[in-house]
Structures are given as structure tokens and as C-alpha cells.
Amino acid sequence: MAATNYNVNKKGYYGEFGGAFIPEMMYPNIKELETKYLDIINDEGFQREFKSLLKDYVGRPTPLYFATRLSEHYHVKLYLKREDLCHTGAHKINNTIGQILLAQRIGKKRIIAETGAGQHGVATATVCALMNIQCVVYMGDLDVQRQSPNVARMRMLGAEVVPVHSGNKTLKDATNEAMRDWINNPEDTHYIIGSVVGPHPYPDMVTQFQSVISAEMKTQLKEATGHENPTAIIACVGGGSNAAGAFYHYLENPDVQLIAVEAAGKGVNTPETAATLVAGKPGVLHASRSMLMQTDDGQVIEPYSISAGLDYPGIGPLHAHLHQSKRGKYIYATDHEALKAAYQLTKFEGIIPALETAHALAGLDKISFKQDDVVVVNLSGRGDKDLQAYIDNLENYVDNE
Ligand SMILES: *Cc1c(COP(=O)(O)O)cnc(C)c1O
Q1: What residues are labeled active site?
Q2: Structural domain contains residue 69
Q3: From atom 5 of ligand 1, which residue's Cα is the shortest distance away?
Q4: 3: CA distance to ligand 1 center in Å?
Q5: Residue 89 beta carbon below 6 angstroms from any ligand 1 atom
Q6: Assigned domain for 16 exists
Q7: Are residues 102 and 184 in the same domain?
Q8: Separation of 353 CA from ligand 1 center, angstroms?
Q9: Which residue's C-alpha comes closest to atom 3 of ligand 1?
Q10: How many A from CA of 338 to the centre of ligand 1?
Q11: Domain range holding 108?
């Protein structure tokens, strides 16, 4: 492979993807972030505080667990990076901790966020409670009704949850409302975006906060196997933050296969899918140029997946680039395949994964490995939030032998 750089360039692009397609009124907010974020992140005091909170509050480093029975089943050496053991149950808090510390350093007194399933909203409300900062979370009215336990959590954590009644009353509409708020409150407010999406510098900033995952993986693999490089890393992709974090320190190392699994919903040949790289075309969504599910005249198509965290119509620009340059292998798994993989992990290893994560596990059925290959699956989150879906499907997937 040619000496390629997979990091963002100065203009905020990964190859032809990324950038900041923002309305002029948002320019001051984005400019401030762009000029300050690298100095802040690289500051020693920031790193000290970030690492200390990741350790004592989030519970890092998360274990790298050798899955004995699943390894036997797949005839491979399989490790699970246990992001499901993070405080609040998923990797998302790595990013919200980083962004709240950054917001404090640029003097912001108020945090806004948007959320679909509520997982990012909960991770944001959590760090705002921790830091005693005002928090407003925009959420489509339909999602407010569908995700009532997370709405209750956010309110208990002290956040104001604002139901959005425009459009389809889902994530895209909540995002529009959050952007409007930010334009109106550029002085005192920071907008915490929850994945590697949105205008530059968000995709890079979020990737850097999540890169702790692959940094730990290197040390832990070295200890467990004698080598810091696995054969392959598998992660699910919605916007792509857990995958970006799990891939980051291996991007420039072509010996390590990077495998990302999108949510195919009911199948990539049906309208009910969220597999952006199969069903999408280049376009601009949330101020970033990437791949996007859209109609011929550019209207965003509402995606579908059984997993609320993966039904995003776009994908982060880093992933569009890794896909286009073939540095990453992008595959997909259906609802059915994900459910099967979730019950299998539970039965073999006693770990109930999030439905999002189950897509990464389903990837194991689609790639063939050799006996001595070392494969790491990034276990992005735990399944407590998905219990109802698991109960509803129990009879179809669990045989009572
Ligand atoms: C939100 C979420 C995802 C999807 O988001 P990415 O930015 O693609 O990582 C995946 N897994 C879990 C457990 C989540 O909560």
C-alpha cells in the first residue's frame, strides 16, 4: 500500500470526504473549535484530567477478554474489547468526557446535544451532572415516546429534554434544532456531537477521544499474545465512533485488517436498511461531505435497523474514505443475523451485548480466518437497554434443549 495518511488534513478532509458545510451564522462557533481543539487536547493538564476521569469515573482500561468458547466455535483466537463495561454501558462516554473538559477550557457554561435512541443524550447528561453544567438535549418527539427509560434517565441527571415536533420527529430533526440553538447561543454554549460525524473538527476530535480504545488494545494484546497487532479488528458502524476509536492506532499499519459492519436492517435490497455504503451516494449531511442514503433529488432517506444506534442515514467521513481507499473492509449484517449473534454470545460467554454490537459479532460469520489469527471484536455496549427486543425474539432464537 502506498504511504497513505488516513488522518484528517488541515482543511478537515479525509480524501474527498469531510469538510465543514456550515451556514455562515455557525462560522464563529466552528472556527473557535477548529482553532483551539488540538492545542487543548494536546495540553498536558488536559490529558492528565481526561485520563484520570477515564480511569476512576468511566472504569478504564476496559478489559481485553479472551473468549474461549467463541474462539473454539470460530477456530480463531478471539478477543473482546469490553467497552460494554464503561460507566453508562457503552463507549459513548469516552467522547462526552473529552468534550465536556474541552468545553470548560473554552469557557462554555451550557451544553446542548441531540439524541436518537437516547444513549448519547444519557452520556452527555451524565458528564454535565458530573461537572455541574447546564444541559439541554434535543430529541425527536417520536423518539421521546419510544425511548422513555432514557428520557427518564436524562431528566433524573438534571438535563432538560426538549421534544422536537418538526419533520419526522426523529434524529435528523433533533439535529436541526440543536444546530439552530447553537447559532443563537454562540458565546456560552458548546454542542456535543456523539459520533465521528458533523462538520470539521468534530470527526477528528471525536476520533481522538475514542482512540483510547485502540491505544489500550495495543498494550493489552502485547501482554496477552506478545504482539501489539491483531490480524483483524471488527466493529459495528452507525456514525462510526467506536469503530474509529478501535481502528485509530492501526490505521497506518496495513497488516491489520480493519473490518466494519453496517446495519442492513431487513436486507440491503429492501428499503428498510441502514447500510449507507451499499445504499448511499456521496452527499452532504450535517455539514459534512460523506456517503449518504438519499433519493435521486437529494432528500435524505429515513434509515431502518432493529438497533436504534445504527439507524443513521450517513457515515463519518473517515469511514467513507477508508471504504473508498479500501483500507477498511465494510460489510453488513441484517437484524436477523445480529439477533442470532447476540443470543450466541450470551450463551457462549455469558455476555449480553447491545444490539448495535451484535452486528459486529455477526461479522464473524462472514469472514474466514485461520486458526492462529488473532481477532478483536470491539464490544461497544451492553444489552440492558435492548432487553425488550431480546424478550420479543427469544422463542425464535433460543432452543430449549
Ligand atoms: C451509539 C452506539 C453505537 C453506534 O455509534 P458509533 O458512533 O457508530 O459507534 C454502537 N454501539 C453502541 C453500544 C452504541 O450505543
Answers
A1: 92, 114, 380
A2: yes
A3: 238
A4: 30
A5: no
A6: no
A7: yes
A8: 12
A9: 309
A10: 14
A11: 21-53+92-205
Domain count, the chain: 2
Q: Is 94 in the pocket of ligand 1 (CB under 6 A)?
A: no
Cis bond before residue 282 (omega within 30° of 0)? no
User: Cα–Cα distance between 86 and 368 in angstroms, integer?
Assistant: 30
Same domain, 165 and 111: yes
Is 116 close to ligand 1, i.e. is its CB under 6 Å away?
Answer: no
Ligand 1 proximity of 314 Cβ (cutoff 6 Å): no
HEC string of 239-266? CCHHHHHHHHHHCCCCCCEEEEEEEEEC
Show pLDDT as tens, one digit a residue, over the chain (401 residues). Answer: 444 689 999 999 999 999 999 999 999 999 999 999 999 999 999 999 999 999 999 999 999 999 999 999 999 999 999 999 999 999 999 999 999 999 999 999 999 999 998 999 999 999 999 999 999 999 999 999 988 999 999 999 999 999 999 988 888 889 999 999 999 999 999 999 999 999 999 999 999 999 999 999 999 999 999 999 999 999 999 999 999 999 999 999 999 999 999 999 999 999 999 999 999 999 999 999 999 999 999 999 989 999 989 988 999 999 999 999 999 999 999 999 999 999 999 999 999 999 999 999 999 999 999 999 999 999 999 999 999 999 999 988 976 54
Q: How far is the CA of 354 from the centre of ligand 1 (A)?
A: 9
CATH code of the domain covering residue 215? 3.40.50.1100
Report which protein residue has its CA nearest ligand 1's atom 1: 309
Looking from the CA of residue 245, the nearest atom of ligand 1 is 9
The response to whether residue 316 sits with its C-beta less than 6 Å from ligand 1 reads no
Q: How far apart are CA 212 and CA 83, in angstroms?
A: 11
Distances (CA, A) of 337 to 64, 126, 280, 296, 359: 24, 32, 21, 30, 7
Q: Is the beta carbon of 197 within 6 A of some atom in ligand 1?
A: no
With left for phi above 0 and alpha for psi between -120 and 50, is residue 59 left, alpha or beta?
A: left
CA distance 231 to 247: 12
Q: What are 368's three cell numbers?
A: 474466514
On whether both 369 and 231 belong to a single domain, the answer is yes
Query: Are 80 and 46 within one domain?
Result: no
Q: Rounded distance, CA 7 to CA 166, Å?
A: 36
Q: Tell me how far the alpha carbon of residue 242 lies from the centroid of ligand 1, in angstroms.
A: 6
User: Are both 158 and 259 inside the same structural domain?
Assistant: no
pTM for the predicted model, two decimal places: 0.97
Q: 74 with 133, same domain?
A: no
User: Does any domain span residue 49?
Assistant: yes
